[in-house]
Amino acid sequence: MLYLTECPRDAMQGWPTFIPTTDKIDYLNALLKVGFSTLDFGSFVSPKAIPQLADTAEVLEGLDLSQSGTMLLAIVANLRGAETAASHPQIRYIGFPLSVSETFQQRNTNKSIVQALDDVARMQDICARTGQQQVVYLSMGFGNPYGDAWSPAVLGEFTQKLDGLGVSIVALSDTIGASTPATIGPAFRELTAAYPNIRFGAHLHTTPDTWHEKVAAAYEAGCRHFDGALGGYGGCPMAADELTGNMPTERLLEFSTQVGLEPGVNLEALGEAVRLNQRIFAGH
C-alpha cells in the first residue's frame, strides 16, 4: 500500500485570512478518522513568521486521538520549536526543513546549512530522550530559483550526513514544483539503493496536468511514502510569491487504485473531511 501523510498544516500555513481555531480542530478531527498514516497537523514556529499557526498548541489540545491510528507530525524551524513539540507526547514525529539550497535555508530558518545541520543533530538528541522521531525534509530537493547547486549527488551528500547523525526518515521535498520525472526517478532510485536503512518519502508540489507523471516516477523508483493535501491547497510562503500547490491527496488515492494497491482509508470519513475542506478554504 501507499503510506500517506496528509498535510493540512501545509495547506493552511500561507492562507491569507486566519482560519478559526475551532474550524481547524473540527477539520483535523475529521482527518484523523480517515485512516492516513500520518497527519502533519501544525507547526511550532514564530507566530510573526507564520501567524496562521500561532494556535497549534491549542489545536493539539482539541484533537481526539482515542480512536485513530494516525500518527501526528509537527514541523519546527529551530531547537526551541523542537523542545516545544517534544513536550507533547501525542506527537510522534518532529519535522525539520533542511534545505539543499543555502539561500533558501537562510530565507526559511534564518540559518546557514551548517547551523541547520547542527540543529538536526541536537534534535536527534531530543528525540532520543523523548522516544519521538525526527523527519528531515530536504527542501528545494529538485532544484531552486536561486541558482544554488542541485543534483542527485547533492542530495546524496546531504543524506550521507543525515545517516551519520542517525536520521532514519527523509522526505525529498519539491517546495516550488520544480520536479520532473527526469529528476524524481534518479534521486529516489539512487538514494533508496544507497541507504536502505532510511525511509524516504516524497513531498511533491504539482500542477493539475503533471501530478501523475511525478507520482509514477517516485513510485517506480521505489518510493511508497507520499505527502498530500486535500484539494491540493498550500505551499511554502517563504519560497516564492507564486506557489505551485501541494500534491492533491485525491490524486494519490486515485494512483493507489490504478496500481492495484489498497488505499487503506475510510471513504465515508474521507467524504466528510472533503466537505469540511471545501467549507474552510472556500469560506475564508
TrEMBL record:
<dbReference type="GO" id="GO:0006552">
    <property type="term" value="P:L-leucine catabolic process"/>
</dbReference>
<dbReference type="Pfam" id="PF00682">
    <property type="entry name" value="HMGL-like"/>
</dbReference>
<feature type="domain" description="Pyruvate carboxyltransferase">
    <location>
        <begin position="1"/>
        <end position="271"/>
    </location>
</feature>
<dbReference type="InterPro" id="IPR013785">
    <property type="entry name" value="Aldolase_TIM"/>
</dbReference>
<comment type="similarity">
    <text>Belongs to the HMG-CoA lyase family.</text>
</comment>
<dbReference type="GO" id="GO:0046872">
    <property type="term" value="F:metal ion binding"/>
</dbReference>
<dbReference type="InterPro" id="IPR000891">
    <property type="entry name" value="PYR_CT"/>
</dbReference>
<keyword id="KW-0479">Metal-binding</keyword>
<dbReference type="GO" id="GO:0004419">
    <property type="term" value="F:hydroxymethylglutaryl-CoA lyase activity"/>
</dbReference>
<keyword id="KW-0456">Lyase</keyword>
<dbReference type="InterPro" id="IPR043594">
    <property type="entry name" value="HMGL"/>
</dbReference>
<protein>
    <submittedName>
        <fullName>Hydroxymethylglutaryl-CoA lyase</fullName>
    </submittedName>
</protein>
<dbReference type="GO" id="GO:0046951">
    <property type="term" value="P:ketone body biosynthetic process"/>
</dbReference>
